[in-house]
Specification:
Number of helices: 2
CATH topology of the largest domain: OB fold (Dihydrolipoamide Acetyltransferase, E2P)
CATH class of the largest domain: Mainly Beta
Helix content: 25-40%
Structural class: alpha+beta
Radius of gyration: 19 Å
Number of strands: 6
Oligomer: single chain
Strand content: 35-45%
């Protein structure tokens, strides 16, 4: 009887852990907290973070600092976007979706233009 009880608890724990991982993944990888309309932002890069879980830039647009969330590094690299493309001081134009809360200066980028070169990170989102 104790073996059956232990196995039952182990199965419940495994199901709970799987559910938590799935919930976290779906929350992290969604676009649900962004608007549905395309949004374009132009500014100057003040900080770069190219790495997991998503490449990101901090961009100064008319004195306001924006958190620009890009794609995971593997997707960015497939689009041709890597460390050699952008650096602090570069002017960039991004198209994507703005955060649904207008008080949050953040966008999820589908396309970025740097020095006249275009990188489509999520072409189906444009």
């Amino acid at each position: 009887m104790t073996h059956r009880f232990a196995r039952s608890n182990a199965l419940r724990l495994a199901a709970l852990a799987t559910g938590l991982v799935a919930t976290g993944a779906s929350a992290h990888h969604g676009w649900s907290w962004y608007t549905t309309d395309n949004f374009t932002l132009t500014g100057v890069v003040v900080e770069t973070h190219l790495g997991n879980p998503h490449d990101r830039l901090t961009v100064d647009a008319d004195g306001q600092l924006w958190n620009v969330v890009m794609s995971p590094p593997s997707r960015s690299r497939r689009a041709g976007f890597d460390e050699s493309v952008v650096e602090v001081g570069d002017s960039v134009t991004m198209t994507g979706k703005r955060h649904a809360d207008a008080n949050v200066y953040e966008m999820k980028t589908a396309r970025i233009q740097v020095e006249g070169q275009t990188y489509d990170l999520y072409p189906t989102r444009l």
